[in-house]
Design a protein that fits this description.
alpha+beta; 7-stranded antiparallel sheet; 7 strands; 31% helix; elongated
């Protein structure tokens, strides 16, 4: 249970972003990109990570909600959760401003021996965590940039894990890189 809890909590004690850093990290402005193009690219980012367990909703003309349900099974434990992305856009005559925000909800279950050969299941309460570290947002925007032809390199989870290890960024990559059914597909793989 300790391993599952540590894994799911990510780096809970890490530093978080200031208000200004959060706004800068979770917002991008694109010249010459329509909302249709942007949302098509955003859908592709999530489908490339895990199309089977991802649902999309459009609560208005300028917004998208993405939910990715996931589960992990270990020998004596299991964990389940949902990553929820809220994406909003503001078009103008010359550009498109986009905002992305992600939160994670998780719970784990552990088998506990009862003595005499029996077992019971202990479930931890569900936790909701907002993501206030830059790594996942930077990866999201780097993938959007690639799909909108603003960059030539597709950033893989392995690339971003190396950046975290080198201290170039910090925070969780869970919402795009952990418990996914596809193994970090490239956009060309979906064609």
């Amino acid at each position: 249970m300790i391993i599952a809890s540590a894994f799911l909590s990510g780096c809970a004690n890490q530093q978080t972003m200031s208000r200004d850093d959060f706004i800068t990290t979770t917002q991008r402005t694109y010249d010459g990109v329509s909302e249709r193009e942007f949302y098509k690219a955003a859908e592709a980012v999530f489908k490339l990570s895990d199309e089977d367990d991802t649902d999309f909703a459009y609560p208005g003309e300028h917004a998208m909600i993405v939910e990715h349900d996931w589960s992990l099974y270990m020998v004596l434990a299991a964990a389940r959760g949902t990553h929820t992305w809220q994406i909003k856009t503001e078009p103008s005559d010359t550009d498109l401003t986009a905002n992305a925000y992600v939160s994670m909800q998780a719970a784990n279950m552990t088998g506990m021996p009862t003595g005499g050969g029996g077992a019971s299941v202990m479930t931890s309460p569900s936790m909701q965590n907002m993501v206030n570290t830059p790594a996942i947002y930077e990866l999201f925007w780097a993938r959007i940039d690639y799909l909108l032809d603003k960059s030539q390199d597709w950033p893989t989870c392995e690339d971003w894990e190396a950046k975290v290890d080198r201290g170039e960024t910090y925070g969780t990559l869970d919402p795009l890189c952990v418990a996914m059914n596809t193994d970090d597909l490239l956009p060309e793989d979906m064609r």
